[in-house]
Amino acid sequence: MSTRYIKKIYGSDVIPEKDDSASDTEISVTNDAKSKSFNVFDVLNQSSDNDEQDTSDKQDEDLDTNCVNCNDAKSRKKKKKRKKLENKKTKSQQHDVEYDEDEIERSVWEVNKLLGEPLPSCSNQVLEPQWVNQKSKEDILTIQHKHLNPYNELKRIFGSKTVQAERNKRRSRGRFGHLKKTWLVCPRDNWPPIGKSGLTMSLDYSVETTGNVQYFAYEHSTSYKQIQLKFLQAVESLNPENIIIAELCKLSEDLPMAAEFIERALYCLECAFHPSFNVTTAQCRLDYRKQQNRALFITLFKHLGFVGGRACYRTSLEFCKLLLSLDPEGDPLAVVLSIDFYALRAKEFEWFVEFCDLWESSRNLTQLPNIAYSLALAHFRLGNKDDADRLLQNALIMFPGVLIPLLEKCNIQTDAKVMQHDFFNSKAQTSTSPALEKLQNLYIVRSFHLWKETDILPWLEECVHAVLNRIESKDEYIKYCQVKRSKRYQGRLPKNILRHIILADMKEVIVNVQEIQNEGPVLSHDPLPPIDSIDIYKRPVANDRIAQNSSNFLSLFFSSLFTDIDGAAAALNGLNIFEENEDHAQ
User: What pTM did the predictor assign?
Assistant: First the structure.
Protein backbone atom coordinates (compact mmCIF):
# COMPACT_ATOMS: atom_id res chain seq x y z
CA MET A 1 0.00 0.00 0.00
CA SER A 2 1.25 3.48 -0.80
CA THR A 3 2.12 5.97 1.90
CA ARG A 4 -0.60 8.31 0.73
CA TYR A 5 -3.35 5.87 1.71
CA ILE A 6 -1.62 5.06 4.98
CA LYS A 7 -1.59 8.75 5.87
CA LYS A 8 -5.32 9.01 5.13
CA ILE A 9 -6.06 6.17 7.47
CA TYR A 10 -3.72 6.86 10.37
CA GLY A 11 -3.41 10.59 10.17
CA SER A 12 -0.77 12.09 12.46
CA ASP A 13 0.03 8.74 14.07
CA VAL A 14 2.05 7.81 11.06
CA ILE A 15 5.66 7.14 11.92
CA PRO A 16 7.78 9.88 10.46
CA GLU A 17 10.12 8.94 7.63
CA LYS A 18 13.86 8.74 7.99
CA ASP A 19 16.31 11.29 6.76
CA ASP A 20 16.56 9.42 3.48
CA SER A 21 13.39 11.09 2.28
CA ALA A 22 14.79 14.47 3.19
CA SER A 23 17.91 13.69 1.29
CA ASP A 24 15.77 12.53 -1.61
CA THR A 25 13.84 15.76 -1.55
CA GLU A 26 17.09 17.73 -1.56
CA ILE A 27 18.36 15.75 -4.50
CA SER A 28 15.08 16.29 -6.32
CA VAL A 29 15.26 20.03 -5.72
CA THR A 30 18.77 20.24 -7.04
CA ASN A 31 17.69 18.35 -10.14
CA ASP A 32 15.36 21.17 -11.25
CA ALA A 33 12.17 19.64 -9.72
CA LYS A 34 12.09 16.65 -12.02
CA SER A 35 10.24 14.57 -9.33
CA LYS A 36 8.07 16.66 -6.96
CA SER A 37 7.94 15.86 -3.21
CA PHE A 38 4.53 14.99 -1.71
CA ASN A 39 2.91 17.63 0.59
CA VAL A 40 1.06 16.11 3.62
CA PHE A 41 -1.56 18.90 3.87
CA ASP A 42 -2.69 18.42 0.27
CA VAL A 43 -4.53 15.25 1.34
CA LEU A 44 -7.14 17.23 3.29
CA ASN A 45 -8.23 19.11 0.18
CA GLN A 46 -8.51 16.08 -2.03
CA SER A 47 -11.99 14.58 -2.68
CA SER A 48 -10.83 11.55 -4.56
CA ASP A 49 -7.94 9.22 -4.39
CA ASN A 50 -6.51 9.14 -7.90
CA ASP A 51 -8.33 11.65 -10.09
CA GLU A 52 -7.74 14.68 -7.94
CA GLN A 53 -4.09 13.87 -7.60
CA ASP A 54 -3.79 13.41 -11.34
CA THR A 55 -5.55 16.67 -12.03
CA SER A 56 -3.33 18.49 -9.56
CA ASP A 57 -0.27 17.03 -11.25
CA LYS A 58 -1.58 18.14 -14.62
CA GLN A 59 -2.28 21.62 -13.28
CA ASP A 60 1.20 21.84 -11.87
CA GLU A 61 2.63 20.81 -15.22
CA ASP A 62 0.45 23.37 -16.96
CA LEU A 63 1.64 26.04 -14.57
CA ASP A 64 5.21 25.08 -15.25
CA THR A 65 4.72 25.21 -19.00
CA ASN A 66 2.89 28.51 -18.69
CA CYS A 67 5.76 29.93 -16.66
CA VAL A 68 8.23 28.74 -19.26
CA ASN A 69 6.15 30.26 -22.03
CA CYS A 70 5.90 33.49 -20.07
CA ASN A 71 9.66 33.58 -19.65
CA ASP A 72 10.15 32.92 -23.38
CA ALA A 73 7.73 35.69 -24.23
CA LYS A 74 9.49 38.09 -21.91
CA SER A 75 12.88 37.26 -23.41
CA ARG A 76 11.48 37.74 -26.92
CA LYS A 77 10.09 41.12 -25.93
CA LYS A 78 13.46 42.11 -24.51
CA LYS A 79 15.21 41.03 -27.72
CA LYS A 80 12.74 43.01 -29.80
CA LYS A 81 13.34 46.05 -27.64
CA ARG A 82 17.08 45.66 -28.06
CA LYS A 83 16.73 45.33 -31.83
CA LYS A 84 14.56 48.42 -31.91
CA LEU A 85 17.15 50.35 -29.91
CA GLU A 86 19.96 49.14 -32.16
CA ASN A 87 17.99 50.04 -35.27
CA LYS A 88 17.35 53.48 -33.84
CA LYS A 89 21.07 53.90 -33.13
CA THR A 90 22.10 52.80 -36.64
CA LYS A 91 19.47 55.05 -38.16
CA SER A 92 20.70 57.95 -36.10
CA GLN A 93 24.31 57.20 -37.11
CA GLN A 94 23.36 56.95 -40.78
CA HIS A 95 21.51 60.17 -40.40
CA ASP A 96 24.58 61.80 -38.89
CA VAL A 97 26.78 60.47 -41.73
CA GLU A 98 24.31 61.67 -44.33
CA TYR A 99 24.20 64.99 -42.57
CA ASP A 100 27.99 65.21 -42.62
CA GLU A 101 28.07 64.27 -46.31
CA ASP A 102 25.49 66.91 -47.04
CA GLU A 103 27.60 69.45 -45.21
CA ILE A 104 30.72 68.42 -47.17
CA GLU A 105 28.90 68.54 -50.49
CA ARG A 106 27.49 71.91 -49.59
CA SER A 107 30.95 73.27 -48.74
CA VAL A 108 32.44 71.82 -51.95
CA TRP A 109 29.62 73.36 -53.96
CA GLU A 110 30.30 76.75 -52.39
CA VAL A 111 34.03 76.50 -53.15
CA ASN A 112 33.37 75.47 -56.76
CA LYS A 113 30.97 78.37 -57.06
CA LEU A 114 33.74 80.75 -56.07
CA LEU A 115 36.71 79.14 -57.90
CA GLY A 116 34.97 77.46 -60.80
CA GLU A 117 34.16 73.85 -61.63
CA PRO A 118 37.08 71.40 -62.19
CA LEU A 119 37.73 69.94 -65.61
CA PRO A 120 35.91 66.66 -66.36
CA SER A 121 39.17 64.85 -67.13
CA CYS A 122 40.55 65.64 -63.70
CA SER A 123 37.58 64.26 -61.82
CA ASN A 124 38.42 60.65 -62.67
CA GLN A 125 42.10 60.90 -61.81
CA VAL A 126 43.34 59.76 -58.42
CA LEU A 127 45.68 62.39 -57.08
CA GLU A 128 48.44 60.92 -54.92
CA PRO A 129 51.11 62.70 -52.92
CA GLN A 130 54.44 63.22 -54.65
CA TRP A 131 56.28 61.02 -52.18
CA VAL A 132 54.11 57.97 -52.87
CA ASN A 133 55.73 55.22 -55.00
CA GLN A 134 58.87 57.28 -55.57
CA LYS A 135 62.17 55.45 -55.31
CA SER A 136 65.64 56.81 -54.86
CA LYS A 137 68.85 55.63 -56.45
CA GLU A 138 69.56 53.54 -53.38
CA ASP A 139 66.07 52.00 -53.20
CA ILE A 140 66.37 50.53 -56.68
CA LEU A 141 69.50 48.65 -55.53
CA THR A 142 67.86 46.87 -52.59
CA ILE A 143 68.05 43.09 -52.84
CA GLN A 144 66.43 40.04 -51.31
CA HIS A 145 68.27 37.25 -49.56
CA LYS A 146 66.49 34.51 -51.48
CA HIS A 147 67.84 35.82 -54.80
CA LEU A 148 71.44 35.60 -53.57
CA ASN A 149 71.31 31.81 -53.48
CA PRO A 150 72.05 30.33 -56.93
CA TYR A 151 70.57 26.97 -55.89
CA ASN A 152 67.12 28.58 -55.66
CA GLU A 153 67.42 29.63 -59.29
CA LEU A 154 68.80 26.26 -60.33
CA LYS A 155 65.80 24.57 -58.72
CA ARG A 156 63.47 26.67 -60.88
CA ILE A 157 65.42 25.71 -64.00
CA PHE A 158 66.24 22.02 -63.47
CA GLY A 159 63.93 20.99 -60.63
CA SER A 160 64.55 20.56 -56.94
CA LYS A 161 65.27 16.82 -57.12
CA THR A 162 68.13 17.21 -59.58
CA VAL A 163 69.76 20.02 -57.63
CA GLN A 164 69.35 18.24 -54.31
CA ALA A 165 70.90 15.05 -55.70
CA GLU A 166 73.93 16.98 -56.90
CA ARG A 167 74.33 18.66 -53.52
CA ASN A 168 74.11 15.32 -51.75
CA LYS A 169 76.99 14.02 -53.87
CA ARG A 170 79.13 16.93 -52.79
CA ARG A 171 78.23 16.46 -49.14
CA SER A 172 79.34 12.83 -49.21
CA ARG A 173 82.89 13.80 -50.17
CA GLY A 174 83.85 14.95 -46.68
CA ARG A 175 82.47 16.65 -43.60
CA PHE A 176 84.11 19.07 -41.23
CA GLY A 177 81.08 19.82 -39.06
CA HIS A 178 78.56 22.62 -38.87
CA LEU A 179 79.51 25.90 -40.55
CA LYS A 180 78.16 29.35 -39.95
CA LYS A 181 75.13 30.21 -42.09
CA THR A 182 75.74 33.07 -44.50
CA TRP A 183 73.76 34.88 -47.20
CA LEU A 184 76.28 35.53 -49.99
CA VAL A 185 77.40 31.92 -50.43
CA CYS A 186 76.21 28.49 -49.33
CA PRO A 187 79.03 26.94 -47.28
CA ARG A 188 79.81 23.37 -48.21
CA ASP A 189 80.27 20.61 -45.69
CA ASN A 190 83.78 19.80 -46.88
CA TRP A 191 85.03 23.30 -46.06
CA PRO A 192 87.11 23.68 -42.91
CA PRO A 193 85.73 26.03 -40.24
CA ILE A 194 86.90 29.63 -40.41
CA GLY A 195 87.57 30.19 -36.72
CA LYS A 196 89.42 33.38 -35.80
CA SER A 197 90.84 34.44 -39.14
CA GLY A 198 92.12 37.81 -37.97
CA LEU A 199 89.79 39.60 -40.38
CA THR A 200 87.20 41.95 -38.85
CA MET A 201 85.03 44.88 -39.91
CA SER A 202 84.29 48.13 -38.10
CA LEU A 203 82.51 51.41 -38.75
CA ASP A 204 84.55 53.88 -40.78
CA TYR A 205 84.21 57.35 -39.28
CA SER A 206 86.81 58.92 -41.57
CA VAL A 207 84.22 59.42 -44.31
CA GLU A 208 81.35 61.88 -43.99
CA THR A 209 77.93 60.30 -44.39
CA THR A 210 74.49 61.62 -45.24
CA GLY A 211 71.12 60.16 -44.36
CA ASN A 212 71.11 56.49 -43.41
CA VAL A 213 74.33 55.69 -45.26
CA GLN A 214 77.06 54.04 -43.19
CA TYR A 215 80.69 53.44 -44.15
CA PHE A 216 82.57 50.35 -43.03
CA ALA A 217 86.16 49.18 -43.29
CA TYR A 218 87.94 45.86 -42.92
CA GLU A 219 90.66 45.52 -40.32
CA HIS A 220 93.58 43.08 -40.23
CA SER A 221 95.05 41.66 -37.05
CA THR A 222 98.79 41.36 -36.45
CA SER A 223 98.90 37.68 -37.40
CA TYR A 224 96.82 38.35 -40.51
CA LYS A 225 99.21 41.11 -41.58
CA GLN A 226 102.15 38.74 -41.34
CA ILE A 227 100.41 36.23 -43.60
CA GLN A 228 99.44 38.98 -46.03
CA LEU A 229 103.03 40.19 -46.24
CA LYS A 230 104.16 36.67 -47.12
CA PHE A 231 101.52 36.56 -49.83
CA LEU A 232 102.70 39.88 -51.31
CA GLN A 233 106.28 38.64 -51.27
CA ALA A 234 105.20 35.52 -53.14
CA VAL A 235 103.43 37.63 -55.75
CA GLU A 236 106.40 39.95 -56.17
CA SER A 237 108.75 37.01 -56.63
CA LEU A 238 107.33 36.57 -60.15
CA ASN A 239 107.38 32.82 -59.64
CA PRO A 240 104.62 31.13 -61.67
CA GLU A 241 104.13 28.64 -58.84
CA ASN A 242 103.04 31.46 -56.56
CA ILE A 243 100.00 32.41 -58.64
CA ILE A 244 96.77 32.70 -56.70
CA ILE A 245 95.23 29.24 -56.48
CA ALA A 246 91.91 30.38 -57.98
CA GLU A 247 93.71 31.87 -60.98
CA LEU A 248 95.78 28.72 -61.31
CA CYS A 249 92.63 26.58 -61.50
CA LYS A 250 91.15 29.00 -64.00
CA LEU A 251 94.20 28.83 -66.23
CA SER A 252 94.08 25.05 -66.13
CA GLU A 253 90.41 25.14 -67.24
CA ASP A 254 89.22 23.81 -63.87
CA LEU A 255 86.44 26.37 -63.55
CA PRO A 256 84.37 24.57 -60.86
CA MET A 257 87.36 24.41 -58.54
CA ALA A 258 88.22 28.06 -59.26
CA ALA A 259 84.63 29.06 -58.45
CA GLU A 260 84.78 27.10 -55.20
CA PHE A 261 87.91 28.92 -54.06
CA ILE A 262 86.23 32.25 -54.83
CA GLU A 263 83.25 31.13 -52.75
CA ARG A 264 85.57 30.26 -49.88
CA ALA A 265 87.14 33.71 -50.02
CA LEU A 266 83.72 35.34 -50.06
CA TYR A 267 82.60 33.16 -47.16
CA CYS A 268 85.59 34.28 -45.11
CA LEU A 269 84.89 37.93 -45.92
CA GLU A 270 81.23 37.59 -44.99
CA CYS A 271 82.04 35.94 -41.66
CA ALA A 272 83.90 39.13 -40.75
CA PHE A 273 80.92 41.43 -41.47
CA HIS A 274 79.97 44.02 -38.88
CA PRO A 275 76.59 43.33 -37.20
CA SER A 276 75.23 46.55 -38.77
CA PHE A 277 76.48 45.69 -42.25
CA ASN A 278 73.27 44.73 -44.05
CA VAL A 279 73.70 43.83 -47.71
CA THR A 280 69.98 44.19 -48.51
CA THR A 281 69.45 47.86 -47.63
CA ALA A 282 71.84 49.42 -50.19
CA GLN A 283 72.93 51.82 -47.44
CA CYS A 284 76.28 50.23 -46.55
CA ARG A 285 79.42 51.60 -48.17
CA LEU A 286 83.07 50.60 -48.48
CA ASP A 287 85.82 53.00 -49.50
CA TYR A 288 87.64 51.47 -52.46
CA ARG A 289 90.71 53.58 -51.77
CA LYS A 290 91.45 51.51 -48.67
CA GLN A 291 93.54 48.51 -49.59
CA GLN A 292 91.85 46.09 -47.20
CA ASN A 293 88.37 46.87 -48.63
CA ARG A 294 89.18 46.05 -52.23
CA ALA A 295 89.15 42.31 -51.56
CA LEU A 296 85.36 42.28 -51.18
CA PHE A 297 84.82 44.23 -54.43
CA ILE A 298 87.03 41.96 -56.49
CA THR A 299 85.72 38.74 -54.92
CA LEU A 300 82.11 39.75 -55.55
CA PHE A 301 82.93 40.62 -59.17
CA LYS A 302 84.56 37.24 -59.82
CA HIS A 303 81.80 35.40 -57.98
CA LEU A 304 78.99 36.94 -60.04
CA GLY A 305 80.90 35.99 -63.18
CA PHE A 306 81.08 32.34 -62.16
CA VAL A 307 77.41 32.35 -61.09
CA GLY A 308 76.40 33.87 -64.42
CA GLY A 309 78.33 31.13 -66.20
CA ARG A 310 75.94 28.63 -64.58
CA ALA A 311 72.96 30.49 -66.16
CA CYS A 312 71.91 31.92 -62.76
CA TYR A 313 71.33 35.37 -64.20
CA ARG A 314 68.95 36.60 -61.51
CA THR A 315 71.51 35.75 -58.84
CA SER A 316 74.21 37.57 -60.80
CA LEU A 317 71.93 40.58 -61.10
CA GLU A 318 71.52 40.70 -57.32
CA PHE A 319 75.28 40.60 -56.86
CA CYS A 320 75.63 43.40 -59.42
CA LYS A 321 73.24 45.51 -57.37
CA LEU A 322 75.14 44.67 -54.20
CA LEU A 323 78.48 45.54 -55.78
CA LEU A 324 77.15 48.83 -57.11
CA SER A 325 75.60 49.75 -53.76
CA LEU A 326 78.99 49.49 -52.02
CA ASP A 327 80.22 52.54 -53.98
CA PRO A 328 77.45 53.87 -56.24
CA GLU A 329 79.16 57.15 -57.08
CA GLY A 330 82.60 55.84 -57.95
CA ASP A 331 81.63 52.39 -59.28
CA PRO A 332 85.29 51.28 -59.11
CA LEU A 333 84.71 48.08 -61.14
CA ALA A 334 82.28 49.61 -63.69
CA VAL A 335 79.38 47.29 -62.88
CA VAL A 336 77.13 49.36 -65.16
CA LEU A 337 78.83 47.68 -68.12
CA SER A 338 77.37 44.30 -67.18
CA ILE A 339 74.25 45.01 -65.12
CA ASP A 340 72.15 45.44 -68.27
CA PHE A 341 73.11 42.00 -69.58
CA TYR A 342 72.12 40.19 -66.39
CA ALA A 343 68.90 42.23 -66.06
CA LEU A 344 67.75 41.28 -69.56
CA ARG A 345 68.84 37.68 -69.15
CA ALA A 346 66.89 37.48 -65.90
CA LYS A 347 63.88 39.09 -67.66
CA GLU A 348 63.83 41.96 -65.17
CA PHE A 349 62.80 44.44 -67.86
CA GLU A 350 60.71 46.73 -65.66
CA TRP A 351 63.45 46.94 -63.06
CA PHE A 352 66.06 47.83 -65.68
CA VAL A 353 63.91 50.59 -67.18
CA GLU A 354 63.30 52.05 -63.74
CA PHE A 355 67.00 51.78 -62.92
CA CYS A 356 67.92 53.74 -66.04
CA ASP A 357 65.33 56.43 -65.31
CA LEU A 358 66.63 56.95 -61.77
CA TRP A 359 70.33 56.93 -62.66
CA GLU A 360 70.22 58.82 -65.96
CA SER A 361 70.37 62.28 -64.41
CA SER A 362 73.49 61.59 -62.34
CA ARG A 363 75.44 59.09 -64.45
CA ASN A 364 74.28 59.67 -68.06
CA LEU A 365 73.89 55.95 -68.55
CA THR A 366 72.54 56.23 -72.09
CA GLN A 367 75.95 57.57 -73.17
CA LEU A 368 77.23 54.03 -72.80
CA PRO A 369 76.56 51.79 -75.83
CA ASN A 370 75.48 48.81 -73.74
CA ILE A 371 72.84 50.82 -71.86
CA ALA A 372 71.57 52.53 -75.02
CA TYR A 373 70.93 49.26 -76.87
CA SER A 374 69.75 47.29 -73.84
CA LEU A 375 67.24 49.96 -72.83
CA ALA A 376 65.63 49.78 -76.27
CA LEU A 377 65.52 46.00 -76.01
CA ALA A 378 63.89 46.18 -72.58
CA HIS A 379 61.12 48.47 -73.86
CA PHE A 380 60.56 46.11 -76.77
CA ARG A 381 60.11 43.17 -74.38
CA LEU A 382 57.65 45.21 -72.34
CA GLY A 383 55.55 45.92 -75.43
CA ASN A 384 56.39 49.64 -75.64
CA LYS A 385 56.86 49.59 -79.40
CA ASP A 386 57.05 53.36 -79.94
CA ASP A 387 59.62 53.91 -77.19
CA ALA A 388 61.59 50.89 -78.33
CA ASP A 389 61.75 52.15 -81.93
CA ARG A 390 62.84 55.62 -80.84
CA LEU A 391 65.52 54.34 -78.46
CA LEU A 392 66.94 51.80 -80.89
CA GLN A 393 67.13 54.34 -83.71
CA ASN A 394 68.90 56.79 -81.40
CA ALA A 395 71.33 54.05 -80.34
CA LEU A 396 72.08 53.16 -83.97
CA ILE A 397 72.70 56.82 -84.79
CA MET A 398 74.86 57.47 -81.72
CA PHE A 399 76.83 54.20 -81.92
CA PRO A 400 76.77 53.09 -85.58
CA GLY A 401 79.88 50.95 -85.12
CA VAL A 402 77.87 48.34 -83.20
CA LEU A 403 75.62 47.15 -86.03
CA ILE A 404 77.97 45.42 -88.49
CA PRO A 405 80.11 43.60 -85.85
CA LEU A 406 76.92 42.57 -84.04
CA LEU A 407 75.43 41.06 -87.19
CA GLU A 408 78.68 39.25 -87.95
CA LYS A 409 78.82 37.88 -84.41
CA CYS A 410 75.25 36.60 -84.76
CA ASN A 411 76.03 35.11 -88.21
CA ILE A 412 73.27 37.17 -89.81
CA GLN A 413 73.39 38.31 -93.42
CA THR A 414 71.50 41.51 -94.06
CA ASP A 415 70.65 43.25 -97.32
CA ALA A 416 73.30 44.93 -99.44
CA LYS A 417 71.92 48.41 -98.81
CA VAL A 418 72.83 48.22 -95.15
CA MET A 419 76.17 46.45 -95.61
CA GLN A 420 77.39 48.91 -98.23
CA HIS A 421 76.17 52.13 -96.60
CA ASP A 422 78.96 54.43 -95.45
CA PHE A 423 77.21 55.39 -92.23
CA PHE A 424 77.59 51.90 -90.76
CA ASN A 425 80.98 51.14 -92.35
CA SER A 426 83.67 53.67 -93.19
CA LYS A 427 82.15 56.64 -91.36
CA ALA A 428 81.43 54.51 -88.32
CA GLN A 429 85.05 53.33 -88.19
CA THR A 430 86.61 56.75 -88.64
CA SER A 431 84.32 58.49 -86.14
CA THR A 432 84.75 55.86 -83.41
CA SER A 433 87.64 56.39 -81.01
CA PRO A 434 89.67 53.43 -79.69
CA ALA A 435 88.12 53.85 -76.24
CA LEU A 436 84.58 53.78 -77.62
CA GLU A 437 85.45 50.83 -79.85
CA LYS A 438 86.57 48.91 -76.76
CA LEU A 439 83.22 49.56 -75.05
CA GLN A 440 81.32 48.50 -78.17
CA ASN A 441 83.29 45.28 -78.53
CA LEU A 442 82.75 44.50 -74.86
CA TYR A 443 78.99 44.84 -75.31
CA ILE A 444 78.92 42.78 -78.52
CA VAL A 445 80.91 39.87 -77.07
CA ARG A 446 78.84 39.75 -73.91
CA SER A 447 75.31 40.40 -75.21
CA PHE A 448 75.14 39.21 -78.82
CA HIS A 449 72.95 36.24 -77.75
CA LEU A 450 70.17 38.68 -76.86
CA TRP A 451 69.87 39.77 -80.50
CA LYS A 452 69.61 36.28 -82.01
CA GLU A 453 65.97 35.84 -81.04
CA THR A 454 63.58 35.34 -83.95
CA ASP A 455 61.30 38.24 -82.99
CA ILE A 456 64.22 40.66 -82.51
CA LEU A 457 65.76 40.46 -85.98
CA PRO A 458 62.76 41.85 -87.94
CA TRP A 459 62.46 44.73 -85.48
CA LEU A 460 66.19 45.47 -85.78
CA GLU A 461 65.97 45.47 -89.58
CA GLU A 462 62.98 47.79 -89.47
CA CYS A 463 64.79 50.30 -87.27
CA VAL A 464 67.94 50.15 -89.41
CA HIS A 465 65.97 51.08 -92.54
CA ALA A 466 64.26 53.86 -90.59
CA VAL A 467 67.70 55.25 -89.71
CA LEU A 468 68.76 55.11 -93.36
CA ASN A 469 65.67 57.10 -94.30
CA ARG A 470 66.54 59.71 -91.67
CA ILE A 471 70.05 59.92 -93.10
CA GLU A 472 68.71 60.54 -96.59
CA SER A 473 66.37 63.21 -95.26
CA LYS A 474 69.36 64.85 -93.49
CA ASP A 475 67.99 64.67 -89.99
CA GLU A 476 69.69 67.18 -87.67
CA TYR A 477 69.94 64.62 -84.88
CA ILE A 478 72.45 62.62 -86.92
CA LYS A 479 74.81 65.59 -87.17
CA TYR A 480 74.32 66.33 -83.48
CA CYS A 481 75.35 62.79 -82.53
CA GLN A 482 78.36 62.94 -84.82
CA VAL A 483 79.64 66.11 -83.14
CA LYS A 484 78.89 64.67 -79.71
CA ARG A 485 80.75 61.47 -80.54
CA SER A 486 83.82 63.39 -81.71
CA LYS A 487 84.04 65.39 -78.46
CA ARG A 488 83.40 62.53 -76.07
CA TYR A 489 85.05 59.12 -75.73
CA GLN A 490 88.45 60.63 -76.47
CA GLY A 491 91.64 59.74 -74.66
CA ARG A 492 92.27 56.59 -72.69
CA LEU A 493 89.71 54.55 -70.86
CA PRO A 494 89.10 55.34 -67.18
CA LYS A 495 90.60 53.06 -64.59
CA ASN A 496 87.33 51.52 -63.50
CA ILE A 497 86.59 50.36 -67.05
CA LEU A 498 90.11 48.96 -67.39
CA ARG A 499 89.62 47.04 -64.14
CA HIS A 500 86.34 45.69 -65.48
CA ILE A 501 87.97 44.41 -68.67
CA ILE A 502 90.87 42.84 -66.77
CA LEU A 503 88.65 41.06 -64.25
CA ALA A 504 86.09 40.00 -66.88
CA ASP A 505 88.91 38.11 -68.62
CA MET A 506 87.32 37.90 -72.06
CA LYS A 507 89.58 36.50 -74.72
CA GLU A 508 88.15 38.75 -77.44
CA VAL A 509 88.40 41.95 -75.38
CA ILE A 510 91.79 42.57 -73.80
CA VAL A 511 93.77 45.52 -72.53
CA ASN A 512 96.96 46.40 -74.38
CA VAL A 513 100.10 47.87 -72.91
CA GLN A 514 99.46 51.41 -74.13
CA GLU A 515 96.11 51.53 -72.34
CA ILE A 516 97.56 50.62 -68.94
CA GLN A 517 100.68 52.73 -69.27
CA ASN A 518 101.27 54.80 -66.12
CA GLU A 519 98.12 53.36 -64.56
CA GLY A 520 99.72 51.09 -61.95
CA PRO A 521 100.38 47.38 -61.45
CA VAL A 522 98.12 44.83 -63.11
CA LEU A 523 97.69 42.07 -60.55
CA SER A 524 94.72 39.76 -60.44
CA HIS A 525 94.12 40.27 -56.71
CA ASP A 526 94.25 44.10 -57.02
CA PRO A 527 94.38 45.39 -60.59
CA LEU A 528 95.17 49.08 -61.13
CA PRO A 529 94.83 50.45 -57.58
CA PRO A 530 93.65 54.07 -57.38
CA ILE A 531 96.26 56.79 -57.33
CA ASP A 532 95.08 57.99 -53.92
CA SER A 533 95.12 54.48 -52.48
CA ILE A 534 95.30 54.18 -48.68
CA ASP A 535 97.66 51.24 -48.22
CA ILE A 536 98.43 49.44 -44.98
CA TYR A 537 101.04 47.27 -46.69
CA LYS A 538 104.12 48.59 -48.41
CA ARG A 539 105.33 46.84 -51.49
CA PRO A 540 108.02 44.38 -50.35
CA VAL A 541 111.44 44.95 -51.83
CA ALA A 542 112.69 41.92 -53.70
CA ASN A 543 116.05 40.53 -52.66
CA ASP A 544 119.23 41.17 -54.55
CA ARG A 545 119.29 37.65 -55.90
CA ILE A 546 116.17 38.23 -57.94
CA ALA A 547 117.38 41.64 -59.04
CA GLN A 548 120.62 40.20 -60.33
CA ASN A 549 118.95 37.34 -62.17
CA SER A 550 118.70 38.82 -65.63
CA SER A 551 117.68 35.48 -67.07
CA ASN A 552 114.22 35.79 -65.53
CA PHE A 553 111.61 35.20 -68.18
CA LEU A 554 109.42 38.16 -67.29
CA SER A 555 112.37 40.53 -67.03
CA LEU A 556 113.45 39.57 -70.52
CA PHE A 557 109.89 39.95 -71.72
CA PHE A 558 109.54 43.49 -70.39
CA SER A 559 112.99 44.53 -71.52
CA SER A 560 112.08 43.40 -75.03
CA LEU A 561 108.91 45.47 -74.99
CA PHE A 562 110.40 48.65 -73.53
CA THR A 563 113.93 49.54 -74.53
CA ASP A 564 114.26 52.21 -71.83
CA ILE A 565 113.68 49.68 -69.01
CA ASP A 566 116.36 47.18 -68.15
CA GLY A 567 115.66 43.65 -67.09
CA ALA A 568 116.89 44.13 -63.52
CA ALA A 569 114.45 46.98 -62.91
CA ALA A 570 111.63 44.95 -64.38
CA ALA A 571 112.44 42.00 -62.14
CA LEU A 572 112.79 44.24 -59.11
CA ASN A 573 109.52 46.08 -59.52
CA GLY A 574 107.51 43.24 -60.97
CA LEU A 575 104.59 44.45 -63.04
CA ASN A 576 104.66 47.94 -61.53
CA ILE A 577 107.08 49.36 -64.10
CA PHE A 578 105.22 52.58 -64.75
CA GLU A 579 104.87 55.75 -62.77
CA GLU A 580 101.50 56.71 -61.31
CA ASN A 581 99.37 59.10 -63.30
CA GLU A 582 96.08 60.77 -62.56
CA ASP A 583 93.19 58.46 -61.73
CA HIS A 584 90.58 58.44 -64.48
CA ALA A 585 88.07 56.46 -62.43
CA GLN A 586 84.60 57.87 -62.58
Answer: 0.69
